[in-house]
Amino acid sequence: MSLCQYSIVFALLFVGAFGHGDEELFLPLKTLQKIQHNHNEPTCSSQKSRSENGAVMLEMKHKDYCFRSRGDLSKRLQKRLLADDIRVLSIQSHIKNVSSKKVEALSQTTTQIPINSGVSMQTLNYIVTATLGGRNMTVIVDTGSDLTWVQCQPCRLCYNQPEPLFNPSISPSFQSVACNSSACQSLESATGNSGLCGTNSQTCSYLVSYGDGSYTKGELGQDHLVLGSSSVDNFVFGCGRNNRGLFGLASGLMGLGRSDLSLISQSSGVFGGVFSYCLPSTEAESSGSLVFGGDTSVFKNSTPISYTNMVPNPQLFSFYFLNLTGMTVGGVAVQDSSFGRSGFLIDSGTVITRLPPSIYKAVKAEFLKQFSAYPSISGYSILDTCFDLSAYEEVNIPTIKIYFEGGAEMEVDVAGVFYFVKSDASQVCLALASLQYEDEIGIIGNFQQRNTRVIYDTKQSQVGFAKETCSFM
Ligand SMILES: *[C@@H]1O[C@H](CO)[C@@H](O)[C@H](O)[C@H]1NC(C)=O
Ligand SMILES: *[C@@H]1O[C@H](CO)[C@@H](O)[C@H](O)[C@H]1NC(C)=O
Ligand SMILES: *[C@@H]1O[C@H](CO)[C@@H](O)[C@H](O)[C@H]1NC(C)=O
Ligand SMILES: *[C@@H]1O[C@H](CO)[C@@H](O)[C@H](O)[C@H]1NC(C)=O
């Protein structure tokens, strides 16, 4: 444990300049609460996008940001965490099945759009707004699946969404996708379900089942997709006419996986198969950016980018696998023989990071040792390492770092260490959870990726990390 603690001036926090040493954060608790809970009702302003040095950036907000519903916060959060566990189970079961495919990348444009917390849209996933066939569509960002889809008119079974449904009949650039097309044939590897001829050979029916009971069903279509200042012609997506599940109030989902049908593969001629994001915390006013393209000069990273190679996983090509070789808690290396043994996946759609049981036990033990000054209390949902911090003005939080093959390093931002079950800090939990079995695949969830620039280079098969205080503009 480090003897070195850094004090910070409260005011500095508002400009995002967290004072921190290598091993521990010294943080006024009230500030941490502020990072995680915003007590003002957020308003849903339209998302921003801008172009810089030929790169397009989309503003990214947490999915709950817009359209916040009333109701018991704690209940809703618990539901989301349970949903998170179901996603993890589904990923684990999927891992045994799917086949592989190759992607090739071509050239260089960069564009960015805002990315936002989806909390007010009743999910712990992140959302962006893209323009499809001339309509703004707010969708969940998912690196763990490939097909992009939106709820579509006429709809057989659609959940509520505040934006109008996509209407193919009023988009002059919309085209349906024939069932003998290569796009229709790609469905099998992208979704695990093959495309079927619809009522006639001019349509291709799809089904994506997310394994937790969530699904979308409909036909493939193509239309003009605009991401910030760049566009992708004839973008193939799902026109969902029967959609159910844990999508909150989003109009659909953006698939950023690796197979041929994903947005990244389809746009590789424009963006070269590279994208990155900086995920903001759930604080209402904060946006991050989703950047398409490889121009790193648009980032606002405060540390150099360190890269690690993706680990090929022939069983599940859509996911991004990494070789996690170690972790430190407060500068102390956690000892466990399962580091580096099998791939970990990095996912924008899983909330809480899942560690194999032996690694989790070791991390938890080291964290408890260093955090022993604070009273432990009962667990919450999938989180079993919880504290009552309501009596403290300040807490010393051990820094958690994750290391990958090749020396790449991801420092978990202070906003990603604790999950505040109660906003008065009377139940605050370490935001990490254990997998059930040692041979399951570890997952780095979005909560721990906050305020980090995560770069996915599918051409070089690398993932990069750098610290960045997420902002847009
Ligand atoms: C779509 O969003 C952009 C900003 O992303 C905004 O400028 C534009 O007015 C919106 N269009 C519609 C029809 O809402
Ligand atoms: C995986 O394959 C098994 C056996 O073929 C099947 O029972 C199971 O439903 C499949 N799981 C998924 C998620 O596709
Ligand atoms: C698909 O079928 C149509 C006739 O329905 C035919 O004109 C077209 O060439 C076929 N395309 C492919 C890729 O086989
Ligand atoms: C991960 O990296 C370590 C150290 O380089 C290596 O020994 C191990 O075989 C790698 N594991 C995988 C799954 O690639």
From TrEMBL:
The active site is at D142, D347. The keyword Protein transport does not apply. Keywords: Signal. InterPro entries: Aspartic_peptidase_A1, Aspartic_peptidase_AS, CND41-like, PEPTIDASE_A1, Peptidase_aspartic_dom_sf, TAXi_C, TAXi_N. Residues 126-466 form the Peptidase A1 domain. Residues 1-19 form the signal peptide. GO terms for molecular function: aspartic-type endopeptidase activity. GO terms for biological process: proteolysis. The keyword Transport does not apply. Belongs to the peptidase A1 family. This is Peptidase A1 domain-containing protein.
